[in-house]
Amino acid sequence: xxxxxxxxxxxxxxxxxxxxxxxxxxxxxxxxxxxxxxxxxxxxxxxxxxxxxxxxxxxxxxxxxxxxxxxxxxxxxxxxxxxxxxx
Length: 87
Hints:
Shape: globular
Number of strands: 5
Strand order of the largest sheet: 1-2-3-4-5
Structural class: alpha+beta
Radius of gyration: 12 Å
Number of helices: 3
Strand content: 25-35%
Helix content: 25-40%
């Protein structure tokens, strides 16, 4: 997923997820800049930083990486993308 997420299509995929959630919350969104990305931030919904991860990341949450922002989890299915978030 890391290779896909950092490609052009991956960034468009992240942007689509941010847009969908921001629209549902009547808010704005933007992708993170390189400095923000180095802190584990993929984008913002309003002024809230978020990290977008595949659902498989949930099983790796015990990894030493520490990100203290809200997560958006996604799973790609054949004809849809399932998104989970709790904020």
